[in-house]
């Protein structure tokens, strides 16, 4: 039996007993309330706030929908509640009202002056409060204690052919983890609607905790020797994930992983993976089934797969025009791309109308840690050149870079060159955002999502001129 399976056996009872986990959490932070205890206090307050707001403003018109929006993927339609983050077209993402630089400054880190810990961001997304270092550590330790995956899930992943895409394996494993869903069991046993959030919380914590073991097992099976290290109970989430992947000896990579998991976690509720998770969750499917659906949408080239698409395009450019290409050569390559009817990937965004703050956070990391890397040098030139070219081209509403234009370059630099795996990293991160919201979906009793649709023929009858 492997060390991980022994770990699984040791903690299997604790993983299935919420009361045991809660007691363990109290031991981590004896002088402070645990996340679940704090959430128990906050939920009634938020429920009353929402109830009063709906009473006063429930019939207020939030926005209008045009026919172009209906045909255009519902872009800009205002119709979702998402507590954790709001995306402003000019300002970028705010997590519970805080910008990325504010989160980098205020959220606890593992080392002085280091990147914020994903555990701290999760606390912020769930509660709206910046956690103390002690509270952050309690989440780190609780996730480590919940991290073991069942032996049958290990066997399932070990039997997957290496040719099966990592995202397909990831989704497969998440569906299999549903076997131990607290919410599914509670619902089957007739739980009161007011108590839905409790088992949803337990599933969300279990799911996030187990993702590094699942994701790393896929990586080690497909690209390495199949051996996966043990979870270290005294280490933070990103360190453990880096260690399972085989990169923990590089402290800079561990810091990058902390930043990566924070930046890719949440981007309000309208993006495909967030909306899909929310939509499936609204049917009262448990968090595992809901997140598996979100992962499948994340795998698409217009969503999470975009980061590897950008990297491949950038590396092809470097191969074509050389590592020391001039601004003139780069500009010509860009115009050749556009005039050939192709797009410049990694630039533009459905909502943003400025440089993505997530891109800037990664750029600042690169300037600090890998300023001389040739691929970053090219990306840096593109940062300065592409907006002008796209503006002159005149067919792009936002000519500025988004997060996908940078993340792959950083991973390449530190030796993670397996591009098909990048979306799995994105998926581990995205769970932090969508699970925090799913807890609130159940806490606020949000109903089944069911918008109205029309056919083209019906719209013509409604609006076509005589």
Automatic annotation (TrEMBL):
Keywords: Transferase. The active site is at 303, 349, 404. One of its GO terms (biological process) is carbohydrate metabolic process. GO terms for cellular component: mitochondrial matrix. It comes from the Eukaryota. One of its GO terms (molecular function) is acyltransferase activity, acyl groups converted into alkyl on transfer. Signal peptide: none annotated. Pfam families: Citrate_synt. InterPro entries: Citrate_synth-like_lrg_a-sub (IPR016142), Citrate_synth-like_sm_a-sub (IPR016143), Citrate_synthase (IPR002020), Citrate_synthase_AS (IPR019810), Citrate_synthase_euk (IPR010109), Citrate_synthase_sf (IPR036969). PANTHER family: CITRATE SYNTHASE, CITRATE SYNTHASE, MITOCHONDRIAL. Belongs to the citrate synthase family. This is Citrate synthase.
């Amino acid at each position: 039996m492997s060390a991980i399976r022994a770990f699984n056996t040791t903690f299997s009872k604790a993983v299935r007993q919420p009361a045991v986990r809660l007691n363990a959490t109290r031991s981590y932070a004896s002088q402070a309330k645990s996340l679940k205890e704090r959430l128990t206090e906050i939920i009634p307050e938020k429920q009353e706030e929402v109830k009063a707001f709906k009473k006063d403003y429930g019939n207020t018109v939030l926005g209008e929908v045009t026919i172009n929006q209906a045909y255009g993927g519902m872009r800009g339609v205002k119709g979702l509640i998402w507590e954790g983050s709001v995306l402003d077209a000019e300002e970028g993402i705010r997590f519970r009202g805080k910008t990325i630089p504010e989160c980098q400054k205020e959220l606890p880190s593992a080392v002085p002056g280091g990147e914020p810990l994903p555990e701290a961001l999760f606390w912020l997304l769930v509660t709206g409060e910046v956690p103390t270092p002690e509270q952050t550590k309690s989440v780190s330790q609780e996730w480590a204690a919940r991290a073991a995956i069942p032996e049958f899930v290990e066997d399932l992943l070990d039997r997957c052919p290496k040719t099966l895409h990592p995202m397909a394996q990831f989704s497969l494993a998440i569906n299999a983890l549903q076997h131990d869903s607290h919410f599914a069991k509670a619902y089957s046993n007739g739980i009161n609607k007011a108590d839905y959030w409790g088992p949803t919380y337990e599933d969300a914590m279990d799911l996030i905790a187990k993702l590094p073991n699942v994701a790393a097992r896929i990586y080690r099976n497909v690209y390495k020797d199949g051996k996966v290290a043990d979870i270290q109970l005294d280490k933070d989430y990103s360190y453990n994930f880096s260690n399972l992947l085989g990169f923990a000896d590089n402290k800079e990579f561990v810091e990058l992983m902390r930043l990566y998991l924070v930046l890719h976690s949440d981007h309000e509720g309208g993006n495909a993976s967030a909306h899909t998770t929310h939509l499936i969750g609204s049917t009262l499917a448990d968090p595992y089934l809901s997140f598996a659906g979100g992962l499948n949408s994340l795998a698409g080239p217009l969503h999470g797969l975009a980061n590897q698409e950008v990297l491949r395009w950038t590396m092809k450019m470097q191969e074509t025009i050389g590592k020391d290409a001039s601004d003139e050569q780069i500009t010509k390559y860009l115009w050749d791309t556009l005039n050939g009817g192709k797009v410049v990937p990694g630039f533009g965004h459905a909502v943003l109308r400025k440089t993505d703050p997530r891109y800037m956070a990664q750029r600042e990391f690169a300037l600090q840690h890998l300023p001389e890397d040739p691929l970053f040098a090219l990306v840096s030139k593109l940062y300065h050149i592409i907006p002008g070219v796209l503006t002159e081209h005149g067919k792009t509403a936002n000519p500025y870079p988004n997060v996908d234009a940078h993340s792959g370059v950083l991973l390449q630099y530190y030796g993670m060159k397996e591009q098909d795996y990048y979306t799995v990293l994105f998926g581990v991160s995205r769970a932090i955002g969508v699970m925090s919201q799913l807890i609130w979906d159940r806490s606020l009793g949000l109903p089944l999502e069911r918008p109205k649709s029309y056919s083209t023929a019906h719209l013509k009858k409604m609006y076509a001129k005589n």
